[in-house]
Amino acid sequence: MNSNYKQQTYLIGGIILIAIGLLWLFHSIGIELPDHLISFPSLVMVTGLIILVKSNFKSESGWIVFSFGSVLLLNRLIPNQNLLQIGTASIITILGAYYLLRYFTDGKSSS
What we know:
The structure is a single chain. The chain is an all-alpha fold. The chain folds into two domains: 1-33; 34-111. 74% of the residues lie in helices and 0% in strands. The protein has helices at residues 3-28, 40-54, 60-77, 83-105. Helix 2 packs antiparallel against helix 3 (60-77) and helix 3 (60-77) packs antiparallel against helix 4 (83-105). The longest helix has 26 residues, at 3-28. The N and C termini lie far apart (40 Å).
């Protein structure tokens, strides 16, 4: 296993364990945290962020997972605004435009 990859895995694992421990500690001593902080959309966003950090922010799937988590969280924070449908449609449209741009620009040399 690559030493750099191993160190990065320890870093991410340590951050996750500290976050879980702090959340558990806060809950145990009675500190109330906002519901949206510990929710499924936040978990999706953190998963996307972990993928992005591991790929030096070059992973397409990391950006997709992170953006879907963001849309889910915005939909929870601002209810009754139809953000889930608008956000999902926007993400799909942007992803399609990105793939078209890659298709038309990859493999063509500038010289």
